[in-house]
Amino acid sequence: MRLSQFFLPTLKETPSEAQIASHRLMLRAGMVRQLTAGIYSWLPLGHRVLKKIEQIVREEQDKIGFNELLMPTIQPAELWQESGRYDDYGLEMLRITDRHDRKMLFGPTNEEAITDIFRKDVRSYKQLPQLLYHIQWKFRDEIRPRFGVMRGREFYMKDAYSFDIDYESARHTYNKIFLAYCRTFTRLGVKAIPMVADTGPIGGDLSHEFIILADTGESEVFCDKKWLDKDLTGKGVDLNDRTGLENWVQGTLEDYAATEEMHDASNEAVTALGDDLVTTRGIEVGHIFHFGTKYSEPMGATVLGPDGAEVPVQMGSYGIGVSRLVGALIEASHDENGIIWPESVAPYKVGLINLRTGDDECDAACEDAYAKLTNAGIEVLYDDRDIRAGGKFADMDLIGLPWQIVIGPKGLKNGVVELKNRKSGEKTEVTFEAALNQLSA
């Protein structure tokens, strides 16, 4: 993509309304613009990151056998009245009335809708498990939306739901999703620590939050420092081996980690840690629940069991805040010059900078480099704008692409380009072919 043809409205000044790094940088880098309180438009650069995160999340759900579907954003109130949550949910639920005076709502979550789908079409235990997910916009009417996409009112979320015949099967599904989440966040280039959590309004008796450590996190968290270097990829774990998977999950969780609500300073495991206890702040990016029959019983989601008796199914739900992750990744990875994207979610892998647009030799070298990078399958954003070099450097650092190739008159005389790693700041002068080989590897 040529930057001269790309909508990238960067800002030099920090918007006064932005209080945290991710909000400031997303506005300055032209990733989002606020439409109204807590509601944002995603501009092309932000949209590319959002879609890359979404795709990684999708792939990891697919790998463990979940099926993707798409449920509506608007839901009828009667479904929530069946589950008993319509009145309990409070003012965060945006309630509306249609022209026929029917009560509707903008979905803050989808337990009721998915249970309704299940109960209409699944009759026998032989049809279980059913593992379903969707990625959809949701709305919660936060009283004080703030911190940009980190605490907005409208947000993009992956939520998955499982239906199993008994607790043991449901627990196995829970463990599979636990591992899938660990792998998802690893692929996103960030460490998200699973912590025992309160189930809140979703309900249930088993729940873990996945927390990214960041100084600007919303709440205090506590963990053994072993978590900082722990491998969470679960290499070699067989998803179909219930005992092996359970042992891996329990082994992973044996080191202390707790949110502020669940932390117990007097716990022996905590006091024994001494200086190895890490106290910092964290950002919740995922939350998984097993809630048994909380929704299936009141809503009649039952199947005929092996003995012919009708039984309510065991359910779980599993969320990842896709749009929130964009902000969380920035909170975890930025510097004074801008964003530093992990390669897996970067809007482009390489930023190509023409130091002297309009110079025939520079233009020709950049066009040739742009073509070769593109033909090699490398996503490249070519800054071909006729502006000062300083502005190009500043914008490229601000938007945080992992690599920069700088081509100018001086380097061309010596047969080299400058290759910069955005994360380390390291700059090397190499031939373009050497840079291409390195980036293609």
From TrEMBL:
GO terms for molecular function: proline-tRNA ligase activity. The keyword Protein biosynthesis applies. Keywords: Aminoacyl-tRNA synthetase, ATP-binding, Cytoplasm, Ligase, Nucleotide-binding, Protein biosynthesis. Transmembrane segments: none annotated. It catalyses: tRNA(Pro) + L-proline + ATP = L-prolyl-tRNA(Pro) + AMP + diphosphate. It comes from the Bacteria. Its EC number is 6.1.1.15. Catalyzes the attachment of proline to tRNA(Pro) in a two-step reaction: proline is first activated by ATP to form Pro-AMP and then transferred to the acceptor end of tRNA(Pro). Homodimer. This is Proline--tRNA ligase. The lineage of its organism: Bacteria, Pseudomonadati, Pseudomonadota, Alphaproteobacteria, Rhodospirillales.
